[in-house]
Amino acid sequence: MTPVTETLPATGAAAAQAGGAAPQSAAVTVEIFEVGGGLAAEVRAASGASPMACYQCTKCSSGCPVAARADLMPHELVRLVQTGQRGSALGNRFIWECTSCHTCVTRCPQQVDIPAMNDALREIGRREGVAAKGTAVPVFNEIFLETVRKRGRIHEISLMASFKLRTRRLLDDMDKAPAMFSKGKLPLLGERVGEKAKREQIFRKAVAAAAAQAGDAKGTSGQQGGSR
Fold first, then answer.
1. Which of 57, 147, 160, 214 is the one with CA 20 to 30 A from 111?
2. What is the dihedral of CA 210, 96, 129, 136, to 10 degrees?
3. Of 206 and 72, which is predicted with more confidence?
């Protein structure tokens, strides 16, 4: 199938990184092989959000609190999903930097749930070993959940120690440690919650449910692609 080339205007951080003051000075060009194909169906099956409902009014991007520092705008991400640009949709920083504040959903006339889409894209990216260069959020999420699984709650010192060792950001934010210690925000021992067996059971169920959902999403994606 011959692809159609579409140019998306870059705004915010994307335009600034390209060296232009005005949004028109930079652009993202994609080759569209299909619209509403496998990736859109997979995201919808995994998240319940409907990427194809978006008609690119950009209200989400104009209200997004992290868009100015992100490498993609929310509406650009949705368009990448709509047009099956899998590598770009999974390999950007925006899906990890989104705070799930739901400002975009509130502003969207079509109620496209971009935070839910981001959750699905994160999970797909983790499963496929794809993550944006320079982001440490996937590592933090992994350590956070492992700490909860083992202790039943967060222990800030062990969490940050593991994070800094994994990311090699050993001295980042160290100037904040004295104030946090003095205010009791970094307890040395921390608390442990009992019933570890129940927690393990909850985590096993969550992993099994995620695997089943991933299988359903892939099946939906395959059917969508096969019907084209």
1. 214
2. -120
3. 72
Which of 60, 73, 63, 93 has its CA nearest to residue 23?
Answer: 73
- In three-state secondary structure terms, 184 is coil
Mean of the per-residue pLDDT values of the chain: 79
Select from 43, 51, 48 the least CA-distant residue to 218. Answer: 43
DSSP 167-183: HT-TTTTGGGHHHHHHT
Q: Determine the Cα–Cα distance for residues 5 and 54; give it in Å rounded to an integer.
A: 19
pLDDT for 113: 95
Tell me the two tokens of residue 117.
């889409």
Structure tokens that stand for 20 in this block: 């232009």
pLDDT at 18 over 70: no
Residues 117-143 have a mean pLDDT of 84
User: Domains of the chain by range and CATH?
Assistant: 4-134 (1.10.1060), 137-201 (no CATH)
Residues in Cβ contact with 31 at an 8 Å cutoff, skipping those fewer than 6 apart: 3, 4, 5
Average pLDDT over residues 65-86: 91
CB 125 within 8 A of CB 80: no
Q: Which two tokens stand for residue 119?
A: 């959750």
